[in-house]
């Protein structure tokens, strides 16, 4: 499904993710009831304080497919250059990034499983910053994806 995503490279081996993203994936797996998805209420920031600066919590919106940042970690603000809490994807990304991200959201909803990818912050004019992201679906009813917890790890240029 994600063979030809523009500007994003799919990552399928969750064990090869950067360590903070692996920790987030393991935490999500621990919270996941058998055969179901964890809900937002299952994710407790007190249990993962070291990951919170690089986490975004998003509400999945439909028609049109979009998301709204419910929480945007302090490390994300620092690297991306702006607070995004309360904003929609379409407000902060350019059209190519929106198109690629729509496909990722659709995949998250369809597969109901983790999606990881890497790329560059081209939509912010920061092509010099690489990133790796992990998006994990959440569902209040255990079935229907209505939120996601996302972790981002950045590759900043060395000076």
Core attributes:
globular; 6-stranded antiparallel β-sheet; 4 helices; 26% helix; disordered N terminus; 159 residues; alpha+beta
Topology:
Layout: E1 8-11, H1 19-31, E2 55-61, E3 66-72, H2 74-80, H3 89-92, H4 95-111, E4 115-121, E5 126-138, E6 147-155
Antiparallel strand pairs: 1-4, 2-3, 2-6, 4-5, 5-6
Task: Characterise the protein shown here.
The chain is of the alpha+beta class and 159 residues long. The protein has helices at 19-31, 74-80, 89-92, 95-111, and strands spanning 8-11, 55-61, 66-72, 115-121, 126-138, 147-155. Strand 5 and strand 6 (147-155) form a beta hairpin. It is globular.
Q: How many DSSP-defined strands?
A: 6
**Percent of residues in beta strands:** 25-35%
Q: What does the oligomeric state look like here?
A: single chain
- Dominant shape: globular
Low-confidence stretches: 1-5
Give the neighbour order of strands across the main sheet: 1-4-5-6-2-3
Helix content: 25-40%
Series of secondary-structure elements, N-terminal to C-terminal: EHEEHHHEEE
- Helices, by number, come to 4
Sheet of most strands? 6 strands, antiparallel
Structural class: alpha+beta
- Measure the end-to-end span: 37 Å
Q: Radius of gyration over alpha carbons?
A: 15 Å
Residue-averaged pLDDT, rounded? 89
